[in-house]
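re: the backbone from monday

yeah here it is again, tokenized this time
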């Protein structure tokens, strides 16, 4: 089929694509929905419309829109934006009465006066980016096949990628950048917080400004970094690397395989791991060769009764072992 370059539904928007068949089915034409948006390739979507709302009733799960909810149906999954707070795919429509939506619940517990006074308050439906009375996806760009750039200044490329947050970038295959200035790349990666970056294969960056890389890693803590295979960084600004390592505490670092990360509910620094070298063989056999606590105590496997698991139970830190050796030498006439 002949290529075409034509204006789409948004002002100054354009579609550059051709008809195509995938899996024996005719693929829908690309859609450039918002102002100054651009689609290149097949079955791409660039741009997003949504519905502004004026108020929320938390107790009754009600959203009051500024216009009739044309195009919405019961069962649609909505995303809610209030200022810089974004709740992606957070709620489901239960009933519709012109400009009033009843949903199954809110992802937040209150709607404050500051929230109500925000100029930016809207909902949108990722699967129906063309409906709504409010253009919020201008300058979006999608290229490749079946990609979606559905917010302001987003960019998606490759195949089946989605850039949802404003200024987000997704690339590769089946990647998703869901929040502001997030970036996903590779295969099946998800950047699921503001400024988060996920790369590799099936990695997730959930914390604010977090970074996950490798395969099946998860950077769950804000500013945390996970890399390797199957690792999990939960603590704020923590770093987990290797295979199946875990960091639970702020600023903690783990390396090796199947480590133990000790934490304390009451903030006891003697019970909080800050660094570990894992030498375990499975989830059921987690152990450390070396473990350093926030107090500065250092445990080494095979010394002071430390077996790689009992730092917070009955093991003796290396400092205490060395002091006992020094005391013994001195008590026997030695000079150290």
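seq for it, each position gets an aa:
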């Amino acid at each position: 089929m002949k290529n075409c370059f034509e204006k789409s539904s948004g002002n100054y928007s354009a579609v550059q694509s051709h008809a195509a068949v995938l899996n024996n089915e005719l693929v829908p034409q690309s859609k450039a929905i918002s102002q100054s948006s651009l689609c290149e390739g097949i079955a791409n979507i660039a741009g997003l419309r949504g519905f502004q709302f004026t108020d929320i009733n938390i107790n009754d799960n009600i959203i009051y829109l500024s216009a009739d909810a044309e195009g919405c149906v019961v069962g649609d999954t909505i995303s809610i934006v209030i200022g810089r707070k974004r709740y992606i795919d957070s709620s489901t429509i239960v009933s519709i009465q012109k400009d009033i939506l009843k949903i199954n619940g809110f992802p937040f517990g209150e709607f404050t006066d500051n929230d109500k006074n925000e100029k930016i308050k809207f909902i949108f439906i990722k699967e129906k980016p063309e409906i709504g009375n409010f253009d919020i996806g201008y300058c979006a760009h999608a290229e490749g096949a079946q990609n979606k750039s559905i917010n302001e200044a987003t960019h998606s490329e490759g195949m089946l990628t989605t850039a949802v947050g404003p200024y987000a970038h997704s690339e590769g295959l089946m990647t998703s950048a869901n929040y502001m200035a997030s970036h996903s790349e590779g295969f099946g990666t998800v950047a699921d917080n503001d400024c988060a970056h996920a790369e590799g294969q099936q990695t997730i960056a959930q914390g604010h400004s977090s970074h996950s890389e490798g395969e099946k890693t998860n950077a769950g803590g804000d500013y945390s970094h996970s890399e390797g295979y199957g690792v999990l960084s939960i603590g704020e600004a923590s770093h987990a690397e290797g295979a199946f390592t875990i960091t639970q505490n702020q600023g903690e670092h783990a390396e090796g395989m199947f480590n133990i990360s000790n934490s304390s509910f009451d903030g006891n620094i003697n019970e909080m791991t800050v660094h570990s070298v894992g030498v375990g063989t499975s989830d059921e056999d987690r152990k450390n060769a070396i473990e350093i606590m926030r107090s500065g105590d250092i445990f080494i496997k095979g010394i002071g009764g430390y077996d790689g698991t009992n730092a917070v139970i009955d093991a003796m830190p290396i400092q205490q072992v060395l002091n006992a050796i020094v005391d013994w030498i001195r008590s026997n006439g030695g000079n150290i």
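The CA atoms of residues 79 and 90 lie 6 Å apart. The longest strand covers residues 85-97.
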